[in-house]
Amino acid sequence: MLSLLLFAGAVQLAAADRPNVLLILSDDHSVPHAGCYGDANCRRFNITPHLDAFAAEGLRFNRAYTAAPQCAPSRISIFTGRTPVSLGVTRFAQPAKPDVPFFTDVLRSNGYWAGIDGRHQHLDGRVNDAPHIMETLKELGMRSLDTRFDHFVRSASTKGANLAKVGEKVAAILDEVPAGKPFFLYFGFNQPHRSWGEDHDGIDPAQLVLPPDWPDLPEVRLDYARYLAEVRDLDNGFGLIDAMLEKRGIKDNTLVIFMGDNGEALLRGKGTVFDRGTHVPLLIRWPAKIKPGTTCDALISGIDLAPTILEAAGLHPAEGMSGVSFLPALLGQPFRGRAHVMAERGWHFGPITRTDGFDLSRSIMTKRYHYIYNAIPDRSYTPVDMPGGEAWTAVQTAHEAGKLSKLHDRLYFQNPRPIVELYDLENDPFELHNLAGESPLRETEDQLRIEMEKWMIRDGDFVPLPSHVLQKHR
Q1: 457 and 354, same domain (yes or no)
Q2: What digits encode the pLDDT tens for the residues 203-259?
Q3: Strand order through the sheet with 341-345
Q4: Residue where a domain stops, chosen among 317, 338, 359
Q5: Range(s) of the domain holding residue 467
Q6: DSSP state of 155
Q7: By the 8 A CB rule, do 404 and 398 touch?
Q8: Residues 6 or more apart whose Cβ sits within 8 Å of residue 449
Q9: Of 306, 338, 370, which residue sits at a domain end?
Q10: Number of domains in the chain
Q11: Which of 348, 389, 354 is nearest to 220 (CA)?
């Protein structure tokens, strides 16, 4: 079955015209955390000089979003060009069925060498799991990365001393590519995923500009400084890889894509479908194809990478891929893009009664409006990967002492949460004011709900439709 799906990708470009493709993902890295996105903190402390230089050589997407605010479902959606809901992988670390093609399967079937290394975050199940779980995945053909790639490392780290060797490591991987073959290589960084160390050398927490939806507490500032130090490490590692491409003389025929896998593990980020949970940097360089220093405001979803990469290689998407190729945007051609992007939130590690554990949220976003559906609003908000840490503990302590503002008390401790949230991103980019139910936007709210429900039906979503839940609560 899979071979039949891949046959649709017949080669259209001569081998010499097919680009090498390098896909680099950071881990838990939201917009605006790169200087090229205008972030005051990154610019003041020179956090991302290499990424900024890279952006100046290529195309910066301002409105790119992942299909989920969590590592595993986000990454599988990138490789399959399909939403996590349609794949049945909304549960963290659930692999796709074996007959679901990756875009890399299409590339390999048409003459590409394909490799995967670095942090890939459970694309075919957790790295270490109970024996019966791993055996079952193998029996079903779902633990298969070792057969889907020419080069595969199940668990690799860019932390600590490994960071300085990133350029050498990628060079050694590329040494495996047979002469005359174009390559695809995925390389994932650990940074800036928690846990990060205490180091924030040269980044003064007192001088950081905090977004208005964060309480201004010393512990929050310190946590943020440490996060930015991790982003700086990421940038240094990216610079080593980029320098290696230049040294090897393969920069001109290599399409390089840099993207965040999902939002930052900070307040109202990772694990939520707020803007900060899925809005990620997307920077692409393709010499002689992409005009340097350009930007694009089109809505892009993580599921759009698969058809875009395939079209750049002269190939067609595999059957079932629902992503939309944005190759015209890369080539400077007219590109309307999507009318909206979708995202979903399913189970993540954490206590079952808190949102860092089990939560079911859905999101639809247009260029201006963001509609959020909380299917189980009685879950109390707890930021993913932050429970027990200094920053979240300080926020909880301030709340219990009555020292938080009314705004921050509502944003973090309202329970139950609203079933529906609607934000005007043009006037409220930090999503502070929920406009759901207000009469001037009733038509907009209804239109977005209808589009969300059509998406949920098409993808076979198991979550009750918003209209059904709303009827019950009226």
Answers
A1: yes
A2: 999 999 999 999 999 999 999 999 999 999 999 999 999 999 999 999 999 999 999
A3: 341-345, 361-365, 369-374, 420-424
A4: 338
A5: 343-473
A6: S
A7: yes
A8: 371, 373, 420, 466, 467
A9: 338
A10: 2
A11: 389
